[in-house]
Amino acid sequence: KIFILIMGPLMNLLLAFLIFTVINIVGVPKSQYKKEEPVIGYIQKDSPAAQAGLQQYDKILTIDGEKIKNWEELEINIGSNANENLPVQYRRGGKLMETKLAIGSSTRHSMGYAGFYHDLKVEVGEPKKDSQADKAGLKEGDILLTIDNEPVNFYQLQERTPAGIGKELLFEFLRLTEIKPQTENEKPVIKRDKYSVRMTPE
Q: Residue 48 in contact with residue 83, Cβ under 8 Å?
């Protein structure tokens, strides 16, 4: 039983590593997300956020009566309220809801910890020459949307089951292309193209 408990997480990490290797993933958070609306993209299992009943796609509105406009304000609020049990107002779909969030403490400096994160996208780095990604036509900056039709972000990717190891998987990507204006009065247009490729983590 101990072996199974150990191998489960290890196999999940192995699959994530293999997928990272196949498509050369860049998972470094970009600072612009801090100005985005505080919509939850991922909740860590057994975290304070999970125990409070919060879910992916919930939008945080207030914490202890203080309005939260973006991720920067949310992170500051959580970080400065370690070990506090605070009321949280949020929106789920079109419904206004409330809960109590028992903020934890995660570092020796007693920074607050809630266990929810923004929707960090999985972005492709420069494909290695003659790699599966290169042969499939992937380009640097392409964004991974789904694996086998299941939506996935950077955090979810690391939790995928090992069922895909050695098997062909269907990857869906989004490619953003800037179309330069023809005249000085026109603004650049961003073209959004979705495409799918099949690759095998091995």
A: no
Q: Which pTM was predicted?
A: 0.71
Composition of the chain by helix, strand, coil, percent to 5: 25, 35, 40
CA-atom Rg of the chain in angstroms: 20
DSSP 75: H
Taking only the tens of pLDDT, the chain with its 202 residues reads: 333 333 333 334 444 555 555 556 555 455 678 899 999 999 999 999 999 999 999 999 999 999 999 999 999 999 999 999 999 999 999 999 999 999 998 776 778 999 999 988 888 888 888 888 888 888 888 888 998 898 888 888 776 655 556 778 888 999 988 888 777 777 878 889 999 989 887 6
Buried b (16+ CB within 10 A) or exposed e, 57-96: ebebbebeeeebeebebbbebbbebbeeebebbbeeeeee
Helix (H) / strand (E) element for 97: namely strand 95-102
